[in-house]
Amino acid sequence: MRVYFIGAGPGAADLITLRGVRILNNTLMVMYAGSLVPAEILTHCHKDATLINTASLSLPQQIDLFKEARDKDINVARLHSGDPAIYGAINEQMNQLQDLGIAFEIVPGVSSFTAAAASINCELTKPNVSQSIILTRVSGRASKIKEKESLENLAKHQATMCIFLSGAHLPNIIPILLKNYASDTPIALVYKASTSEERKHISTLENVLNEINVANWVLTTMLLVGDVLRPDLNFNSCLYSINYSHKYRKAKGKSSE
Length: 257
Hints:
With 257 residues, this protein is an alpha/beta fold. It has helices at residues 18-25, 59-72, 91-100, 112-119, 151-155, 170-178, 208-211, and strands at 2-7, 29-32, 50-53, 76-80, 103-107, 133-136, 160-163, 186-191, 199-204, 221-225. The protein starts with a strand and ends in a 32-residue tail after the last strand.
């Protein structure tokens, strides 16, 4: 018996890995957070699988389900939105499984921050602009942020920033970002990226709050900010330059290696 923590992706039914689909096709118990994992993902499940919405269940109740599966000697697919490694809340489950001697495996998924970048046709790292991406969120009731990881401190790097679950906090987030980024720095809001409910709004830090109704961007909104979002950038990587030599290609002109 084994528990599979599967990244369900950002929402679209076809943005889940082939490995994740294969496991769902062959697993008789599937646990998923109905508040985050769209019903379309469940179309990949075995026709005889027991589907359990864990949105209202506490950790002990979920552990009881793992024990039940162990007693029946059946595998469990535990679906988590996006990629389980990012705000997946899987550590406490894995600790309990280790104590119970139940084997588990993590199956990576597509994160909402990459889905959001794809939605606005943007590369989040660009030469001479930003080579770093900061993934973060603001403090919430379930999990507080340490002061050294506060938005104020992270924004000082002026790197590309992706702020998860940011919608409800926009009135507090934007003033903080304006202290560290130029007022005309591009910002993109993407709500439920890749799903049929997807909405996006592209603006600048100085204008965004005057253009939107914050109430329309609560819960599953990804905020992308940084100079990499500027549409007029013309900085190219050396990688594909005819003047750049590397192991697999010899430069035709003067090498910039």
